[in-house]
Design goal:
- The chain has twelve helices and 13 strands.
- It has helices at about 5-15, 30-35, 70-75, 95-110, 135-150, 155-170, 175-185, 200-205, 220-230, 260-275, 295-305, 320-325, and strands spanning about 65, 80, 85-90, 115-120, 130-135, 190-195, 210, 245-250, 280-285, 305-310, 330-340, 355-360, 365-370.
- Strands 7-4-8-9-3-10-11-12-13 form a nine-stranded mixed β-sheet, with helices on both faces. It has a two-stranded antiparallel ribbon with strand order 1-2.
- Strand 8, helix 10 and strand 9 form a beta-alpha-beta unit.
- Helix 5 (about 135-150) crosses helix 6 (about 155-170), helix 9 packs parallel to helix 10 (about 260-275) and helix 10 (about 260-275) runs parallel beside helix 11.
- Belongs to the ELP4 family.
């Protein structure tokens, strides 16, 4: 018989908890096993904290083709879109115009909008000095083949046409057109022939604007024109393939009416940098730093995203001729002081900071690293004779 409910509740109330450990050798009863406290799971770990903000910023904007193909590798891919490039002129030679002309010609060839300002009465006349691109190797070969056919009896040209027709029969016109289109897309940067000007119909395009800064008292007109120009090339999420170019020659030249208004020029540079940063455009500015004071020259350098300087070399420097290879083709040196890095925390480390300005065959501009000439060892001591390391003429156990 079971005890009354009151006695059963009293016995459960008086039962010690936790129950005493079983005696050694005794097996726990089924009731004790059922009365054992359930196994408690460890508390779940706290949720992990949210990941910290990534140290890597968004991808930097794309680059614009620079002055020449060689400067693409030098400047880590070209001029960064939304950046201001400043070139410190050399008072001894106008070599900065080589970079400026190549930069402007690259935009004209690609039919990119261009705004040019210079301290001259007719800045559009400067467009006549822009060089034409050098013909590619395919075009040269085609011209040579056509020239050879015209000089001969025409068999070479007929043979070339027959071979071209045979290839077209196998590959098809569509595949050839796609291949040519793909080749044209890859040629984003050109070499320019400084002896051959651009075609006139390219210079009369509507997307080329020119402005004179000579005898101008203020920079308001240049600032307004730059603002209107950049408003057409705002950066969009969908991607805007049209890239604008602004080229300003000798911004602080004495010919300008605002010469001496240092704070006005610094204010203009700050405003231009802010406008260019949010657009698909690149601005390149050359300035004669010798006419600025040291303090304002430092301010200009800090406002530049990419800072370059040009230094001319004398015509005949025997010491440099012995030290550097290819000295005969050199016209100056290009110093890279700073490279633009937008949306990035990783500094750009260049392989070299000084490059040579060369005129290849006196017609195309080339930027190359400085290469030391091999040392002529003919005047040194003769390497002939004994190969022994010992200075004594007698044999020794240590000779080898």
């Amino acid at each position: 018989q079971q005890p009354p409910l009151s006695l059963q509740a009293e016995s459960q109330r008086r039962r010690p908890w936790p129950p005493p450990p079983p005696e050694q050798g005794a097996r726990p009863s089924a009731g004790a096993a059922s009365r054992a406290p359930p196994h408690r799971r460890p508390p779940p770990p706290p949720p992990p904290p949210p990941p910290p903000a990534s140290s890597s910023a968004p991808t930097a904007p794309p680059s614009s083709p620079p002055a020449s193909p060689t400067s693409t590798g030098i400047l880590d891919g070209g001029f960064l879109l939304g950046s201001v490039v400043m070139v410190m002129e050399d008072s001894d030679a106008p070599h900065h115009l080589l970079l400026l002309r190549a930069f402007m010609a690259q935009g004209v060839v690609h039919k990119q909008p261009l705004l040019f300002a210079a301290p001259m009465k007719e800045p559009r006349s400067f467009l006549g000095a822009l060089p034409a691109p050098v013909a590619s190797s395919k075009e040269d070969a085609r011209q040579r083949a056509m020239g050879g056919g015209a000089a001969g009896d025409g068999r070479a040209s007929d043979e070339g046409l027959r071979i071209a027709w045979q290839y077209r029969k196998y590959f098809g016109d569509e595949r050839n057109s796609n291949a040519e289109h793909r080749d044209n897309k890859q040629e984003f940067s050109h070499d320019f022939d400084l002896r051959k000007p651009l075609e006139r119909h390219l210079l009369n395009a509507q997307h080329i604007e020119c402005l004179s800064t000579q005898d101008v008292d203020t920079l308001h007109d240049l600032q307004n024109r730059s603002s209107a120009f950049l408003s057409k090339h705002q950066r969009k999420e969908g991607g805007n393939l049209s890239a604008g170019r602004i080229a300003i020659q000798s911004l602080c030249a004495p010919q300008c009416g605002y010469f001496g208004k240092d704070w006005d020029m610094v204010s203009f540079l700050r405003s231009l940098k802010a406008m260019v940063r949010s657009s698909n455009a690149v601005a390149i500015i050359t300035f004669p730093y010798t006419v600025l004071s040291d303090s304002f020259c430092k301010r200009w350098q800090h406002l530049a995203d990419t800072l370059l300087s040009i230094k001319a070399i004398p015509d005949e420097d025997k010491d440099l001729a012995k030290l550097l290879t290819g000295y005969q083709d050199m016209v100056g040196f290009l110093h890279v002081h700073k490279v633009a890095q937008t949306n990035s925390q990783v500094p750009v480390i260049l392989e070299a900071s000084t490059f040579s300005l060369k005129l290849r065959k006196r017609r195309s501009l080339v930027l190359e690293r400085l290469n030391q000439a091999p040392v002529d060892g003919s005047s040194g001591p003769s390497s002939g004779g004994s190969g022994s390391c010992s200075s004594s003429t007698q044999g020794s156990q240590l000779d080898f």
